[in-house]
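chain below, 860 aa
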Amino acid sequence: MAARRYRAFIWSRRAAVTLILLLSMIDAWCLWRATNEKIHAEQGERNARMAEARALALGEEAMQADCFAAARASDTGNGPEALAHLARAIHYAPQSTLAAEQAVALLNTWSDPLPLAILSGHDGYMTDVRFSPDGARVVTISYKTARVWDVSTGKLLVALTGYGAMESARFSPDGTRIVTATDNETAQIWETSTGRLVAVLSGHQGAVNSAEYSSNGAFIVTASEDKTARVWEASTGKPVAVLSGHQRPVWSAHFSSDGALIVTASPDRTARVWETASGKLVATLSGLQDGVASAQFSPDGAQIVTASEDNTACIWAVPSGVMVTALWGHKGVVTSAQFSPDGRWIVTASEDKTAMVWDARSGKRLAILKGHEAGLVSAQFNPDGARIVTVSSDDTARVWEAATGKLLTTLSGHERDVLTAQFSPDGTHIVTASKDKTARLWELPALTQERVAIFAYPGDQHVEAQFGPDGTHIITSSFASGVAFGATGGPRVRLWDVATRQPVTELADSSPHFSPDGTRFITDSGKKTASIWKTATCELVGTFESGSTAWWKAQFSPDGTRIIATSADNTARVWDAATGKSLVTFTGHEDYLKDARFSPDGARVVTASNDKTARVWEAATGKLLVTLAGHGDAVMSAQFSPEGTRIVTASADKTARVWEVATGKLLFILAGDNDPVNHAQFSPNGTRIVTASDEIRVWEASTGKLLATAARHNPMFDQVIYSAEFSPDGTRILNATEKHPARIWDASTGRLVASFGEPGESNGEVSAHYSSDGTRILTGSISRMARIWTILPPTAGPPPEWFHDFLHYLGQKRLEADGVLVVIPHDDWLALGQNLRAVLHKEAGRKTPYLEALRYFIKD
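prediction:
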């Protein structure tokens, strides 16, 4: 019994030990498994973080590459491509603000309008499009159909079908009827409102290439492949005359403005003039070396301009048919030629990718319109002759300033060649037709939008401009090099009303400056005198004599009671602004003065001279207080700090220097520029300094430490940076350059914030200034104008998810996976617009910089 109990005890102990061992093994295994799983989990997390870091790095790298590509596209004037790159950059790195900031910089001057409506539904190319005389409708032509659309809604009103392939369509002068030309040897007259066929004009023995009404609506003329043109009674469709004589097809036929004559154009190398009523041949315009693409009368009917395949346009006298002038200059077929509405100018379009503007009397070329990337199909003046629209096989139409040839805006978005374009009767809209089977209606915000106000006067060159303190007026000065005061084309000062954009007065003076309160301004007459004028009335307040020498750079004291100016005799002088009495003369410089300024409290004056020094004077007595010596070349400018205890000087010796006013002690040297420093300025709070040389540099004002550098604008240009100015809040820097648009930079990082104007040697902004509230900038340009730009608010944080869609919508293009830039299909583009309007509706009432940009360009 005891043995059994002992054996049981032994077995139980063994079982317990075995169980303990087993449990220990299980615990160890569980611990090992948990540890192993933890190790694997941590390794997985590390791998995931590494993968994410690699993806972020790759995304960051790709984003930066696209930002660089966008900058390059923007510098060459290709805004849609730039926006496509920036949209992709945001996709690669959605949390980065770099691409979004660059996009807002581009949008600050974005002027490419969006189509109001896309007219689609035709089965083939749209070969012709025309506004009705009242501008309320358009008619489009495509294979076998014409369609009439409502301009305000873009809705289809009626379709005209049933008579073969249509070549052209024209409204009657009262807009109640439309005449179409077709390839089935007929033309048709339709009722506009119903699409009812009124009459068929039969008699041609070949396709009809064109048909149009006379100005009084009494006649219709048709041109045909059968080598004839025919005149018809418009009310009945009855034939009136057959214009026979061409040896090859007649491409077009047009009435004179009074309807008495018709001119026809043919590939037989002639144009011919006919009497409308009788069909009698009046004159043959011959002597050309190739076919005549088009022929049109001048507004008074006294001349005709022809466009020829021999690369020329020619002006002919009517009715003699004698050639008056040949317009030579194109290097390709001239596809169209048209007189301006007043008959003074002619515009020609050519397959050489250019259009040219000519003086109709002398034949002198006035402007070349360059920018299209393929041959031009046509060019047309707007109703007042101030602008021109060109259409091209590069899928765009472009709008230009007729007087200067300056590009105003590009109408992009068509997916294939643009075949025709026409201004609306009031000139505010354009309709384009394309091989992509659509027509597009556009308004022209680049010419009318409030964010860019243009102040230009005929004949002005090299315009400088400045704001009045309250922003209600600007003042411009313009001059042509080498032209004397008072002479035609000489210096001119103009005071403008900002609200009306009209000049208030014009003076044969230069160098204007507003008083601190904006109620007066001072000008230099160029005759050793200066004048003060009341801003409100332009009344002369007083004239100040400088003595025996000319003077420059007159400025008011901070309180507006005194005026200081530099003189050609190496002195500066102060006058009483109320009486014109000379108060004090600062003498002692050994060369002419570059600058003279009051201290903020008006108690001192600092002068900068070509003698390599700046000097500080007591303003009341003219007593020399200190001489700031040490520069190795001319001192270009000198300016007090806001509290008046320091001065910063800029010099041609490639340095700027900061000095203590009380002692003249040099505090530090701001060195590093490779060219002369043209300008140096304290920030409004006095904590930073900006210098302008070959680059824009920002320095810490207390130590001279370099804080930020704004990269040189474009390595292709050897630039002169005229000025650099802090924004009123000190966060931005605005600069003007010799050959580049004005630009705004972030004062902390040196990053580009916005660019204003067009790149190019003749488009430099020679002056740029902020408004007192910092919401606008005013630029004065070599290209003959001043402009006020309203600035979009800077970005704040990463862009929202919809922002890259917004950029695609504006640019109307996107980058494919292989990097090819393509036009967004119009259905996809319309869907983007709907989605963005949904964002506006959802975010109504919220204000963010991104939403402000969206609201500006897209209306809810």
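The chain has seven helices and 66 strands. The helical segments are 2-75, 79-92, 98-107, 445-448, 803-811, 826-842, 849-857.
thats it, cya
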